[in-house]
Structure prediction request, 234 residues.
Amino acid sequence: MTAIRAALFDVFGTVVDWRGGIASSTRTWLDDHAPDRTDIDTGEFADRWRAKYQPSMQPIREGRREFTALDVLHRESLLELLDEYALPTDAAEELNRAWHRLPPWPDSVAGISAIRESVIVAPLSNGNISLLLDMAKNAGLPWDAILGAEVVRAYKPTPESYLRTAAVLDLSPDQCLMVATHNDDLAAARGCGLRTAFVRRPREHGPEQSSSEPTDDWNYVVDDLLELGVLLRQ
Prediction:
């Protein structure tokens, strides 16, 4: 088999805890801007904001809207959500920046560092470059390169997002390993010729999530990124 030269990572959910991070930032924001709204479940707020994520990108995937950075899409979704909750919108941008400072999972920094000993490591994320840069600085993520979605002008799971990322790195798809906790992401990557690694993240969707399991025979299935680092050195 062709040697793997690069590990490309899904970020939201695989590398960082988007739900916990957004819930925590939302609570701080509410304390500052709507202190009387103690009725709001910030975990539910995070879930509802995330639920707008895929629909916001669909017009772009279908060619009905020109490419637009994820920061803009997140803010549009947030304004809708604040209206649904009858919350003030004048400080929306402050809360929108919460996506830039999401906390890493406990194994992420050490795991990516271990994987980096064997191959190039970079995000293959729908995030924009400034978002991913800020996140990396805040969380200490040791990427070799940061390739935001605007580099390839496409959003996963369209084939262009995977193929153009490989091309930017001057690699063939089968030299790239897609690392994700989402089976649909891995299926799309494999359809483009990338190798695949499934990482269990049983708390991505909060404490009530019951499991995180592969639904296909991916090249690697691991409990954390440290384990993947060991396997890639073998």
Strands lie at 6-9, 120-123, 176-180, 195-199, 220-222.
